[in-house]
Amino acid sequence: MATVKKDDQVEWKYGKSKATGKVAEVHKDDVSKKVQGKTVKRKGSAQEPALVIKQDNEKEVIKSASEVTKQ
Q1: 22, part of any domain
Q2: Residue 46 within any structural domain of the chain
Q3: Is residue 3 in some structural domain?
Q4: By percentage, how much of the chain surpasses pLDDT 70?
Q5: Tell me, what's the pLDDT at 56?
Q6: In terms of pTM, does the model score above 0.85?
Q7: Structural domain boundaries enclosing 57
Q8: What is the 3-state secondary structure (H, E, C) of the chain?
Q9: Cβ neighbours for 50, distance < 8 A, ≥ 6 positions apart
Q10: Cα R_g (the chain), whole angstroms
């Protein structure tokens, strides 16, 4: 797994398709954030950080580093 850092372009599986976005934040500890009206939590660590990703449509998602690939 390549190291993902802020401003990297990433993609992830979304249903039968893929979604893309730009890493806005990298958290090496647990993170909780309100996304589209719901509180979303991800466990983060130095080995597998939690990523806040801004999509092209300006919506934010939270993913673990293992869920994404760098473009």
Answers
A1: yes
A2: yes
A3: no
A4: 97
A5: 87
A6: yes
A7: 9-70
A8: CCCCCCCCEEEEEECCEEEEEEEEEEECCCEEEEECCEEEEECCCCCCCEEEEEECCCCEEEEEHHHCEEC
A9: 26, 27, 30, 31, 42, 43, 44, 62, 63, 64, 65
A10: 11
Residue 5 sits at the vertex; the CA angle it makes with 55 and 14, to the nearest 5 degrees, is 35
Residue among 15, 7, 1, 16 at smallest CA distance from 64 = 1
Residue 48 domain flag: yes
Q: How far apart are CA 30 and CA 19, in angstroms?
A: 23
Q: Is 40 left (phi over 0), alpha (psi -120 to 50) or beta?
A: beta
Are 41 and 50 in contact by the 8 Å Cβ rule? The answer is no
Mean pLDDT (whole number) for 5-27:
96
Question: Number of structural domains, the chain?
Answer: 1
